[in-house]
Amino acid sequence: MSRSPLHSLWRGLALATTAALLFGAGCGSQTREARLQDAQEHLAQARERLDDARMRLAEREKALEQARQARQEALEAVTEAEGRVAESQAQVQRWATDEVLFRTVQKALLESDALQSVAIRASVSQGVVTLLGEVPDAKLRDRAVAVAKEVPGVVDVRSQITVQSPEAEKGA
User: Fold this and answer.
1) Which residues contact 48 (CB under 8 A, 6 or more apart)?
2) Distance (Å, rounded) from C-alpha 148 to C-alpha 110?
3) How many whole angstroms from its chain centre is CA 134?
4) 87 and 102 inside one domain
5) What tens digit of pLDDT does each residue of 70-85 get?
6) Both 91 and 106 in a single domain?
7) Among the three residues 60, 95, 130, which one is the final residue of a domain in this structure?
């Protein structure tokens, strides 16, 4: 049988197409294998990141639990301290008569370094301290009031302290 040039051309095209398909399929399987390998590497990396994230989460949860325990202990300590303060305040109120407060406030005023150069008198009635005297500036007046307020048992402080210079009063 004689073959025509057209038939040879078709046969060549068929062989070339088959070879291309086979080569492409071969390349495709290599590409699929390469893609599978890439996917496996990505999966391994993702699993490592997941393990790291889980480990960090476990550490944070442990730290959170420790913080909760520390907070609870601190709350218990605050509650206990508040109870002691309340008991102490009751004792102070029991013993803080006007006479005792008078002596204690006078002593605190005399012992204050800032108030060494001024004469301030105190009187006490029902735990309320009234301060009398004259000072060169408003800062000293304010310091005397602060000293009196710091005395345990004092309910309130009223100042009748006068400032010698009106300019010092305005500057305060």
Assistant:
1) none
2) 11
3) 46
4) no
5) 999 999 999 999 999 9
6) no
7) 95
